Amino acid sequence: MKKKHLAMTLSRLRGFSNPRPELEQYRTPGDVAAELLWLAYSLDEVEGKVIADLGAGTGVLSVGAALLGAEVVYAVEKDKKALEIARENARSLGVEDGIEFINADVSEFSKRADTVIMNPPFGSQNPHADRPFLLKAFEVSDVAYSIHLAKPEVRGFIEAFTRDNGFKITHRLTLPFEIPAQFRFHRKRLERIMVDVYRFERV
Ligand code: SAH
User: Fold this and answer.
1) What is the rounded average pLDDT of the residues 94-100?
2) What are the pLDDT digits (tens) for 47-85?
3) What per-residue string of b and e applies to 84-96 under the rule 16 or more CB within 10 Å gives b?
4) Which amino acids bring their CB within 6 angstroms of ligand 1?
5) Does residue 185 surpass a pLDDT of 70?
6) What secondary structure letter does DSSP report for 47?
7) Which residue blocks in 24-143 are alpha helix, DSSP H?
8) What is the largest CA-CA distance in the chain?
């Protein structure tokens, strides 16, 4: 499978049916998910590996990892309805068996993973909502991929937080990320923000 094909396949998956603003439920667009997954795949950190997707939502990243040959993907999500959609998405592409759907808060998750992949809440509703996600990623794995806002203050926070937790940033790709106007406080039909896709590695 090529990156473009992966992006197209993932962009066709179902998104949140009733997104909850307090949980910052923005699905990752197919092209952004494919960039993150392709980077991990090309560094040999997906195929045959144990993957954890923290805050899996409707399963874009989990399904993508399964399509790229992950041994198993733990899709951890506290919203039961989102997880049901994730399961449907996986079934529609025949990868349901490769994903373990775990309805829990990320702080409760405790399985080891070779690689963590995640698009955590950006913290625009609750500042530092991404903190428990980063902490959990650094606890269960030596390698993590994550998406954060491409803003100077967020970058500063991520740089300090990774360093303080014994990790380093090895990659950072800056990409446009389109959010459909799904919440009342969004005035435009489509909002385009810039995000950073990171790869973190234990020092
Ligand atoms: N990873 C998905 C969803 C991103 S939105 C994608 O890439 O499309 C962030 C997700 O994190 C939402 O589905 C939200 O319900 C979930 N979430 C927020 N806080 C959480 C927590 N403490 N534990 C588990 N999931 C959480």
Assistant:
1) 97
2) 999 999 999 999 999 999 999 999 999 999 999 999 999
3) bbbbebbeebebb
4) 23-28, 55-58, 60-61, 77-79, 82, 105-106, 119-121, 132
5) no
6) T
7) 30-42, 60-67, 80-92, 131-140
8) 43
What whole-number distance in Å separates Cα of residue 37 and Cα of residue 61? 7
The letter for the amino acid at 48 is: G
Annotated domain spans of the chain: 27-202
Cα-based distances in Å from 157 to 18, 25, 144, 180: 31, 22, 17, 27
Tell me if 23 sits within 8 A of 121, measured CB to CB: yes
Bridge partners, 73 (sequence order): 51, 99
Adjacent-strand bridge partners of 171: 199
In three-state secondary structure terms, 199 is strand
- pLDDT given at position 75: 98
Which residue type does 15 have? G
Q: What confidence category does residue 195 fall into, taking pLDDT thresholds of 50, 70 and 90?
A: very high
N- to C-terminal Cα distance for the chain? 32
pTM score: 0.95
Average pLDDT over all residues of the chain: 94
**Of the residues 12, 60, 78, which should be mutated to test ligand 1's pocket, given the most ligand atoms within 8 Å of the CB?**
78
CATH code reported for the domain at 27-202: 3.40.50.150
